[in-house]
Amino acid sequence: MGKPKHGDIQRANMRNGLAFAAPALVGLLTLTAYPIIAAIYYSFCNYTALKPPVWVGGTNYVRLAHDALFYKSLGNTAFFAVLSVPLGVLVAFFLALLLNMRVPGRTFFRTVFYIPSIVPVVAGSVLWLWLLNPQYGLINYALAGLDSGLRWLDGLLAWAHIRVPLGVGQPGWLADPAWAKPALVLMSTWGVGGWVVIYLAGLQDVPKELYEAAEIDGASAWDRVRHITVPFMSPHIFFTVVMGLIGASQYFSQAWVMTGGTGSPANSTLFYSMYLFQNAFQYFKMGYACAMAWVLFILILLATLLIFKTSARHVYYGEGG
Amino acid sequence: MTRRSFLLGGLAAVAAGGCRGPAANVNPHVVSVWHPWGGTMAPAFRRVCAAFERAHPGFTVRAVFTPNDLSNNQKFFTSVAAGCPPDAIFVDGPQVAEWAERGALEPLDHLVRAAGIGPTDYFTPCWKQCEYAGHVWALTFCADPNFGFVWNKADFEDAGLDPERPPVTIAEMDAMADRLAKWDDGKLKRIGLIPWAEYGSTNSLFTWGWAFGGSFYDERARKVTPDHPGVVKALEWMCSYARKYDITKIAALQAGFGTAEQNPFYVGKLAMTCLHISGIDEIRRYAPRLRYGITYIPYPPGGEPHSSWVGGWCMGIPKGSRNREGAEELLRWMCATNEGTIAVGQASGLFPGYRRSPCFAEVRNRPGVGMLYKILLETRHQRPVMPAQAYYMGALQRAVEAALYGQKTPIQALRDAGTETQAELDFILAGQGRRG
Amino acid sequence: MGVEHAGARRPRVGPAVGLVALIALSAVFLFPFAWLLSTSLKPESQVFQMPPRWVPHPITLANYRQGLTFIPFALYLRNTLLLCTFSVLGAVTSSSLVAYSLSRIRWRGRDTLFILLLSTMMLPYQVVMVPLFSLFKALGWVDTFLPLIVPAFLGNAFFVFLLRQFFMSIPADLTDAARLDGCSEFAIYRRIVMPLSKPALATVALFAFMGTWNDFLGPLIYLFDERKYTLSLGLAMFTSQYGSQWGQLMAVSTVVTIPIIVLFFLTQRTFIQGITLTGMKG
Q1: CATH code matching the domain that covers B148-307, chosen among 3.40.190.10, 3.10.129.10, 3.40.50.150, 3.40.50.300
Q2: 8 A C-beta contact, residue B352 and residue B310
C-alpha cells in the first residue's frame, strides 16, 4: 500500500475540516449573515426600527465623531476593561490555585466560589448596593476600621516623633463620580466563578510529574507556579483575557441595575453599550446605534488581533495543535 | 445512534408543540394585551381583566406580562418591527407622542368618535398627553398625581417642630430642613430633604421646576425651554442642598438597598419628601408604624401653589394590531366607562384618568389617598408632549447631575440640555424622523 | 528505588495557609446567598430594616408559600429545564465538533473561520436583535421555543473557543498515531479527543446550562404566551414600578438557586478528572 500523497491529505483535511465545522458554517450563513449585513446597512441610514430606513451615507459616523457622550462612554468602557479584566484573571487564577490544593472541604469551597454566578442578578445587585453604601456599607465599615488602625499607628509614631500621615479615606463609591466605576469593577470581580471553573479544569491537565521533579530540584512554590503552571495554563488565560475583553466592551446591564439606567452619577457609569442601548431603544436612533456598534466592533477586533499576535510567543499549547 | 435519534425526535416534538404562533390567533373575541403590571399590581390587573370578561361574555383577554427590565421597549419594538404586535399595549403617559410620531401606534379617532369620548371626560393634563398632531393616540388608564408632600411627624417632634404644621413655602422648608438634619460623628444620620431624590433626577427637576413657576416646553413655538428662569432657580436651589450637606453623604442615606421601596423616608432617615401614590401602600406594608402627614408641595414666592404634574399609564393600539375592534373595546371599557374605571380603581388603588368615574366618590374622604385626589383635581401639568421626549428626559437628567456635582453651573447645564434637545426635536419635526 | 530528598522533609505549610485564605474568602462569597436566605424568611415589614438583621424574628415561611403560588412555578421550571437540556446538548455536540475542526485538523482557512466566528461576539446584540427577530418571524418561529433552542446547535463562539484551547493541549502524537492506523477523523474525535476532555466538556455543559437558566432577553422577546415563560421571566413578575413583592422574590430566588448549588456540588468530580498520559514520555 503506497503512502497517501500530500495533495490527497490536504484535500481530505479540507473536507474533514469543513465537515466538522459545518454547524458553525450553517449558523453563520443562516442566522448571522442577514442581521450583520442589515446592521451594516442601517449604520448608514436613519432608522427607527419602526419605519423603513432612509439612506444618509456617513452622517451617523460624522455625528458620532462630534458626540461628547460617545467619547465619554468609550472612555468609561475602556477604564472598566483595563481594570476588570486583569484583576479578574488574577483573582480567578489565584482562587483556582487555592481550590486545587489538597485541603479538606475542597468540593464545598469550590461550590461556594461559584455561588455568585448562580444567585439571581437582582439579589446580587441589591446586596452590593448595600455593601457599597458610603456610610452604612460593610466595605467602608471595614475601611473605617482600617483607618482607625492606621490612625492608632500614626499616634504611636507621633509619640516616637515620627510624623507620617497615615489614613485611608472612605470613598463615596456609587455616589461619587470618581469611585463609581471602581465600585463596579469590584462587583464584577466577585463574579469570577466561571473563570475559576475554567482554570480548574485546565489545572487538571498540568502534568504532576513536572511539579515533583521541580520540587526535588529545590524550586519554590512561586517558581513552580511561574515556570510550570502558567505556561500550561496559558491557553486558558489567553481565552479568558480575550473573552473578558469582549465581555467588558459590552458591559452594561449590571451597571444599569445598580445605577437605575442613567449612567449616574454624572455620566461616570455611562458605558458604551448602555449609551448604544439608549440610542437604539429609547431615542429611536437605531441607525446611530448601529454606527456605534461597528465602531466598537472595529476597536475590539483590532485589540483582539493584537492580543493574538503578541500571544504567539507566550501561549504554549503543549505538544498539541 | 439512539442518542441522536432521541435528539431529533425531541426537537421535532418541541417544534411541533411550540408552534402555536400568533398567526393562529385571528379570533375577534380574543384580545391580547401586553402590560407592565407585575408585583403587587399583578393580582389587581388579573381582576380587572376578569371583570372585563364578565362584562363581555364570549371575550377572552390574553394578558401577557412584559417586565419593565431595561425597558419593555425591546419586546414591543421588535414585535412591531416584525409585524406581530399585540392587539393592545400599555404606554407610559409621556411616551405617547413619541410613539405616535414614530409610527408605533394607531390613531384612536374612530374609537373616540364612536364612543363619544371627549377632552372633558379626562383630567386636562391626562388628555393632553394622549393627543398629538391633531389625533388621539391613547386613553389614560391611570392618573398619578405627582406628588404629594409628606413629612415624618416623629422626626418633627424630635427636632422641636410642630408635627401638625408642615412647610408651605420653600423658605420654611429650608429652615425646617436645617433643624431636621442630624449629624453623628461626621456621619449624616437624618436629613430634612433631598430635592433631587423625588423618583429620579428628571422627575425631581420637573417637580420643583413647575413649583418654582418654570416651564419646560413651549407648545406653540415647539421649543424646549429648560433654561426658563423658574427652572433655573429650581435647579440652583437643589444644588444649594448638594453643597450644604455634601452630596456623597446624602447619597449614603439614599443608597440603602437601591430599590424604590428602600426609600429613606420609610426608615426615618429622611424627614420630608415627595410621595407617589404607590407610596401610600408601601408605607403600609414596609413601615406600618410610621406617623406621617401628607399635603401640597411647598412653593416659593412667585411660584405655583399646589403644584403637581400627572404621571401614570395609558393604553394604546399598536400599529399592525390584528384585532383592532376587540382592542378598542378593551380600551374603551377599561379607560372610559364607569364600571371599567371602578374596577381599575378598586382593584389597584390607583386613580383612573376618567374624571367622571364614580370610584372617586368613595376615595375623596379617605386619609392620605383623599389628599392625593385633591391634588389631582388641581393638577395642571404633564411632561412635555413632543416626539423627542425620551431624549429630553435623558438630557435633563444629565444636566441635573452635572450641576449637582459641580461640573457645570445650573444655567449652563440647562442651556446645553436645551440646545441638544432642540436640535433633536427640529430634526424629527423636519420630517427626517417621519421617513425613518 | 526512591530518590533521597535533599535535606529534611519540608513541612507542608501551603495547604494550611490556603485553608485559612479559603475560609476568609468564602465568607465574602457566601454573603449574597446568606442575605437571600435571610430575607426570604422575614415578614414584609422587616425586609428593608436598616441596619438589616441576619436572623429574622419571627421566621416565617409565608414568602415561600405565596411566592411559589404567585407564579406557576412548576410550569416555568419545566419550560426552563426543557430549554436548558437542549441548550446543553446542542452546546456540547456542536461546539466540540467545530472546536475539533479548528484545533485538530490542519486545513486552509481554519484560522480565518476562527476569527470570523470570534468576531460575531464582538458586535453588541442590540443592533442584530431586530433583524434577527424578523428572520425568526419570517420562519414562523416567534412564540415558540425554536429561536431559543436551534442556535445552540449551530456552534456558539464562546464554547468553540473554550474547547479549542483545551483540544489544542492534547498531544499531537496521539491523534497522528491514530490517523496512521487508519482511524477516521470522527472516530478520533469520538474515541480519543472527547474522552480526554471531560472536564472541559463539563465546563461547557455548566456554562450552557447556566446561560440558558438565567437567559432573560431571549425568552422576553420571543415568547408571547405566559404559559411558555421561563423562570427568569417569572422572577421579573415579582417587581413592578408600583410595588414589588421583595420577600416573595427572595424566597423564589432561593428555591431557584439551591438545586443548582446542590447539582454543582455533586458533579464536582467531573470537573477535576485528570488525564493520565501513561506511556507518553520520551
Answers
A1: 3.40.190.10
A2: no
